[in-house]
Structures are given as structure tokens and as C-alpha cells.
Amino acid sequence: MLLVGLVIVFEDKNASATVNDVTTGDTNTQNDDKNKKATVYIDPGHGEIDAGTLAYNGKYEKDINLSIAKKVGKNLEDAGVNVVYSRTTDELYSEIEADDMQHRIDESKKVNATYLVSIHCNASDEGTRTGVEAFTDTTNETSMALATSIMKELEGLKYTNSNGIIDGTGLLHMVGFAKVPTALVEVGYIDNESDGKYILGEKGQKAIAKAIADGILNELNK
Ligand SMILES: [Zn+2]
């Protein structure tokens, strides 16, 4: 993956097309080719009147999700992946939650996404919970592999504990009605400073975004 990164750094957009035409059999070239075929649907959770959870400092989850999601998308695009976002601004398709969720799910299918990755921040009633977790259809091999790969990368950052992978089929519309392999990632509990300071900081967001993107790329390049 390092070489792929270097290609991006040293080539401009026009030149990279030539680089990708070279079929040297090099592993990185092959990875780049695989990435180019893939579309990943990135879903920054919530939007508009649906603010999501509230951070310890009063910031809204919807805005933090969007900020991290855009960074994930940038990482993927730099690796040659086609990225489609459910939203790039503070908006909703529908104020009826189920309709809005379904629209995002339908869109991921319409664009023929290899994966749907939904990005969220958590909060707990007691305000003391911490940790990263991922919701997926644990019976779907591809979804499970995606969630596992993303979690492994996030756990590697060691900014918080891990609550593991949870079967979200009966809990979350996005997971239960998924039409493409889906992982919904909760990057931590923003209602306390322990997780929140890292997740709201620019450095933390960059690291989290890179980890999520790497988790996705590891699976795409398998
Ligand atoms: Zn959320």
C-alpha cells in the first residue's frame, strides 16, 4: 500500500492514468486495478433535523460523522476507488427516518457499490461508556469480513477499547435491510471526553478515517 500512496503523491491525475495502463504484474498495480473497479458507498450518519447524538462539548454527531466520512472518502479516492456519498452537506432525503435510511440503502444498490460503510458516533444514557464497535449482518460472510477488517484497523489505533462486532440485523434499519455488504461503524462515545476529545480532534479524525479506509482497502485488495 505504501507504493500506491507514493504513486498518488508523485503523479498528477492525468499522469496516473498512464501509470495504471502499465501491466507489469506488479502487486501494487494489480491492487490499483481492483480498486478502480470498486465503488464504495460512504454514509455519514444522520443529517439536518436528525442530529444524532450530542458530544461532550455540545457538537452534533451528524457534523462529526460528515467530517470523518469525507476524510475516509479522500483516502479511498487517493487509492483509486470510486466513492459515492449519501450526503456531502448537512441534509436529509426524508425527515421520516425509515424512508431516509431506505433511500441510502437503495442508492448503494443503484450505484452497484461493493460496500456500504456507515459512519457514526455513539453516546450512552449513563455517559460513561467508551469504545469502538461495528454493526453488521454477522451471517453474511462479506459483510462480516468488511466489519472485521475495519475493526482491526480501528482497534490498532488504541485510542479507546473495543466493544467488538455486533449483529445489527434486528437492531438497525441500515444493516437489517442492507442490499450490499454493509458495516455500520460507531467510532466511539462522543458524550464523554475520554473518547470524544480524540474523535473531535483533527489528528484523531485523520487517524480514524485512515483506519476505516485501510480496513476497506484490505478487503478490496484481497
Ligand atoms: Zn448515529
Verbal overview:
By secondary structure, this protein is α/β, with parallel strands linked by helices. The protein folds into two domains: 37 residues; 183 residues, 3-Layer(aba) Sandwich (Aminopeptidase). It has a six-stranded mixed β-sheet with strand order 2-1-3-6-4-5, with helices on both faces. Helix 4 links the parallel strand 1 and strand 2. Helix 4 packs across helix 9, helix 6 packs antiparallel against helix 9 and helix 8 packs across helix 9. The chain is globular and about 45 Å long. The N terminus is likely disordered. The structure holds zinc ion (ZN). Zinc ion binds next to loops.
Q: Topology, please?
A:
Blueprint (H helix, E strand, L loop, with lengths): L1 H9 L2 H9 L5 H11 L1 E6 L16 H18 L3 E4 L11 H14 L4 E8 L9 E5 L4 H17 L4 E6 L5 H4 L5 E8 L3 H8 L1 H19 L2
Parallel strand pairs: 1-2, 1-3, 3-6, 4-5
Antiparallel strand pairs: 4-6
The protein binds zinc ion (ZN).
Rounded radius of gyration (Å) = 17 Å
Main sheet: strands, sense, barrel: 6 strands, mixed
Globular, elongated, flat, extended or rod-shaped: what is the shape?
globular
Low-confidence stretches: 1-26
Spell out the helices and strands N to C.
HHHEHEHEEHEHEHH
Query: Which distinct ligands sit in these coordinates?
Result: zinc ion
Question: Count of helical segments?
Answer: 9
Strand order, biggest sheet? 2-1-3-6-4-5
Give the percentage of residues in beta strands. 15-25%
By CATH, the topology of the largest domain is: Aminopeptidase
Q: How many domains comprise the coordinates?
A: 2
Fraction of helical residues:
40-55%
Q: Tell me what the CATH architecture of the largest domain is.
A: 3-Layer(aba) Sandwich
Determine the mean pLDDT.
88
Distance between the termini: 12 Å
